[in-house]
Structures are given as C-alpha cells and as structure tokens.
Amino acid sequence: MKLRSGPIIQVALFLLLIAAARVRAVDGDVVYTFGQVLVHRSSEVLPAEIGMPVGEGDVIETARDGVAVISLVDGAEIKLRENTTLSLDSLGRNVAVHLSSGSVFSRVNRQLISGFSVQTETAVMGVRGTEFFVAYGRKIDRYRDVWICVNTGSVEVAVLETRDTLIVEAGKGINILGGTNLTTPQRYPWTRKLNWNMDPASGAIEDRTDLEQAYSDLLDQDYD
After folding, report:
1. % residues pLDDT > 70 (the chain)
2. d(Cα 186, Cα 223) in Å, to the nearest integer?
3. Burial class (CB in 10 A: 0-12, 13-18, 19+), 5
C-alpha cells in the first residue's frame, strides 16, 4: 500500500525544520556591529545585524570601517577589528576560529568552555580561560608577522611549520616574525592602547590602535 504525506507528517517536518534552525541559532549571535560587517554562509553573503544567529562554518568579515562583537553561548566572546576575516570552524565546548586577515580580541570563560583556539596560516593560539589579542602585521618573508598580546590568563602559542611552542603570560606579548620565528615574550608599550571592551553599555567598542607602533617597540621595553 502506498503511503501519502498527510497533514500530520507535514506538520512534523515543519517542526523538525524549526528545531534544526533553533539548534543552529544557539551557537552564538551578533551583539554589536559598526560600519560594514558581512556574514558569509554557504553561498549567501548577509549583512550582519544585532541579534543575528551565527554558527559553525560562518565567516565574519569586517570592512575598512567595520567592527563586530560575537557572543558564543559556550562562554566566549570575540571582537573583530576593521579589515578582518574570521571563520567559525568549530563551536561547542571546544571552540576553534581561523583568522585569515586583520585582528581579533578573544575573551574566554574557563568555567564554561573546555578549550578555545585561534589559528592563522602559520600558528595556533590555545587557551582555556583568558583574554588575548591576535593581529596580522607586515609581510616581510613568505608569511605575514603575527602579533599576540595577553591581557589576562596565559596563552600557548605553537608555530605550525617549526612546531616551536611557548607560553605568553598576562601583560606580555610576542611577535611571530615571518610567521615562523617566535620572539621572547615581553611588555610592549603599544599594547596599553588596546581597547578590550566588548560591552557597548560600558563605553566605546572600537579599537583604533595603530599596529605600526608595535614595530617601534620591538626592543625590550617595560611599561614603567
């Protein structure tokens, strides 16, 4: 006997689609935007809006004047500066994002998340609970420099090509020269200008730090 797709089955399918959409929506959402911010999803390119859900596989892109803050339900927040492209590779108890260009602030709640990592084309930064900043610098060799600055906690940095690793503690930063050579962690005066705020209710969100200043601080200097 041939079964027909009746009203009950159609309703059930509709409810399943709604449930699937809700499951995807809980990965995170856009909580702040300024300027042009786009979300690349499959074959679509969507303008980011406050409250817009984001999920695994989405790519967030900010233009020359763009800034975005993404809140993830697993206990992490990320802030993208201008001219940044970041993909949400893995979400859940372990979060992995890939920075293709630009710079990003990350804040991780160690009590809500098992692991968090930011990967570039040459290195990966892994943490359990901390606040840190990753940015691309100048391209001197095959790869661009990568800057890492830690505000709280600590970050383990690993270079993919050489497998060299080190720990960067709070208040210090490093430069991965040419994407492969780790510098010694130290205190850089330029990092004092970074705007770590991700809450619009607490003040300005945009960070306008000139990363070129970082190159004049490569000598061993202290904040004091």
Report:
1. 84
2. 10
3. exposed
**pLDDT tens-digit readout, 84-105:** 999 999 987 789 999 999 999 9
* Residue at token pair 């409250």: 51
Q: Cα 62 from chain centroid?
A: 12
d(CA 143, CA 122): 8
6 — pLDDT class (breaks 50, 70, 90): low
**pLDDT value, residue 110:** 72
> Beta strand 59-62 with 85-90: parallel, antiparallel or unpaired?
antiparallel
Rounded CA-CA distance 154/82 in Å is 25
SS3 state at 219: coil
Question: Are the CB atoms for 100 and 118 separated by under 8 Å?
Answer: no
Per-residue CA distances from 75 to 59, 70, 116 (Å): 19, 11, 10
Q: What is the Cα–Cα distance from 124 to 114, expressed in whole angstroms? A: 16
Residue 154 forms beta bridges with which residues? 169
Average pLDDT score over residue span 186-213:
93
Q: Which one is the CATH code of 85-215: 3.40.50.1370, 3.40.50.300, 2.60.120.1440, 2.60.40.420?
A: 2.60.120.1440
Sheet of strand 115-119: strand arrangement? 44-47, 37-41, 59-62, 85-90, 94-101, 115-119, 123-127, 154-159, 165-169
The residue among 83, 161, 167 whose CA lies nearest residue 132 is 167
